[in-house]
Amino acid sequence: MSHVPQNGPVIATRLVAEGAVPVGSARVNDYDSFAEAYTAVNDASLIGAYYARPAILALAGEVARRRILDAGCGSGPLFEALRDRGAIVTGFDQSAAMLDLARRRLGDDADLQLADLGSPLPFPGGAFDDVITCLVLHYLEDWTGPLAELRRVLRPGGRLIVAVDHPFVTVLANLDAGRKASYFGVSKRTEEWTIGDQTALMTFWHRPLHAMAEAFTAAGFRISVISEPEPDPAARELFPDDIAAKPRFLCFLFFVLHAS
User: Fold this and answer.
1) Which class is 28-166+208-259 in CATH?
2) For the segment 43-56, what is each residue's pLDDT rounded down to a tens digit?
3) What is the DSSP string of 24-83?
């Protein structure tokens, strides 16, 4: 299942019917179990390297000397790009294996911590000029506590830059699978990811746009930008067949929010 053009090594996804995941099955969202395989794909993929990260960097703009928290930094590709642009970057992730890969990429002096966005964060209030959370919030059913923590660690007027699954993609995926789809509610979906010879169960939470906006404003943020970007221009040469078929496509939704 995919509404996104793919080329080269990919993550194949299959929507799992509700109730089809057996009790006692492998832990969901367990990036520790496939960290290296995921990183190998993500570092060079159309969606990771030529869509999500360029979009985030374009929204961030000039970041030299800005204190930035990469919330859910994974193996560190966005951390690296921000640091190369002169930002003072801190990262955290709940996957120890992903952080090991990040240290290999970034060096032992990189400020990386093991932490979970679903729990209080180990940072003082007002510590950052910007927080970036790229493809993290859609793993969470309840955004109230996480957004409150992200607001707490931002200085007044600081920015929260967010990328999440585009809510229309969830509906289209369900329709393609022959399932009833409701756009307006908050709902759970489970996918089986296949990366090479590895498989993993991943759970996500769909939110309609109005529910996202309500959560952001309730947490003390003002929405400045909502973006549905094009891929990086370099993708036209690297993925010519995909981009010729779909020069623009639904995939993620991007926000820039300002802390009040």
Assistant:
1) alpha beta
2) 999 999 999 999 99
3) T-PPTT-GGGSHHHHHHHHTT-HHIIIIIHHHHHHHH---TT-EEEEET-TTSHHHHHHH
